[in-house]
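input
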Amino acid sequence: MYHEMSYRVPYADTDQMGVVYYANYLEYFERSRTELLREAGLPYSELERQGVYLPVTEVQLKYLAPAHYDELLTFRSWIQELKGVRLWVASEVRLGDRVLVSGVVTLGCVDGSRHPRRLPPELIACGRKFNGEEAQK
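output
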């Protein structure tokens, strides 16, 4: 169970050689993660209205092959785990069937005062749509 979206690499995302600059993959993961939550029924904007914020606390990326200018990429994300005050989102950047970059972003859950808080039940419910738990029930 995962979310997918397409993205064509613009020139602005690349270096002088026409290769996607390595740090842009973090933005790609964020785009994918944001749309995953939106499709699950709980966009970031709604979480923020509720006083819930999800700062990134850790990132692990594995670069397997470069993406280039004008290629049509697929971003794929799924919820790897939801537990306590943390949410782990796994993502891939793909070109066709080939995985170019894979990784996991760990998000912490904090309130408006930036104090840790447990993941709200509605976020857990939405997250389950993309982590396979619903299919197992």
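quick obs: Residues 133-137 have pLDDT under 50 and may be disordered.
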